[in-house]
Write a structure and sequence with these properties.
By secondary structure, this protein is of the alpha/beta class. It has one domain: 2-enoyl-CoA Hydratase, Chain A, domain 1, CATH 3.90.226. 40% of the residues lie in helices and 17% in strands. It is built from 11 helices and 10 strands. The strands form 2 sheets. Strands 3, 4, 5, 6, 7, 8, 9 and 10 form an 8-stranded mixed sheet that branches. Helix 6 packs parallel to helix 7.
Amino acid sequence: MADSKTDKTARHARERKGWLTRLRPGVRRDNGQKGGETPENLWVKCPETGEMIYRPDLEAALWVTPSGHHMRIGAAARLRITFDGGQFEKIASPVVVEDPLGFPDERPYKERLAAARRATGEQDSMAIGFGKIAGQPTVVIVQDFAFMGGSLGMGAGETFVKAAQEAVARQAPLVIFTASGGARMQEGTLSLMQMARSTLAVNEVKAAGLPYVVVLTDPTTGGVLASYAMLGDIHLAEPKATIGFSGRRVIEQTIRETLPAAFQKSEFLVERGMIDRVATRAEIPAVLGNILETLMMGRARRAA
């Protein structure tokens, strides 16, 4: 009797321990944890609702929560879900002088750059990929907000210029996914100069008769919005993305009025003609494919 009771208790313990296995087969795969423990980041909290979401399910949903909130994603993930079959050629970003101003801060600027590179795996806040979107060869730039707030500095500016040059050399459209808090203060005026340089680079793409399409993601603000983010032939945006030059609180304090709840959100801007369409993350590759095919059609006729 005692042995039977012991066996029953042990069986119940195993069943309790294996509830995640029943919920999702394979969840207890080897994650480098001792004793087969589940990783600490297996569940992700939705920033909008506070709901805890099973990470593999969130990844399968392209990091869009059940409530429809589009979480921020890095450059590698963005490039992978944008190009056909997740296949693309990574184009290296140019190397620039680090900390050209010797900027004094609570933490040395070079240390901030090193930490951002370790966290994101990218050289700077922009990354370039070349591949096909719905069969159309395209150069894509992705801005990563996780890299110092996606800030625009010399490294990002040089990357943008190189992407534009690649688009012209390959006779391919240029697409950018923006996500930025604006210019990088640690580079002062040198960062502001990138607004003008990126604008000239866009002009070179357009002078070559190639499309330049912008996809605005959360958030796109400051000097980035005041330059290349608003120079596209077509402007798309992800749902509920914050898009604006100055912050909401700054504007309210300046005009001494309370702004609408949806102010500076992508849906608000579509209604007022600032952007062309809001598209979900899952829709964007197909929408881009249709746009690029249409815009490149005239070029094909001219070439013929």
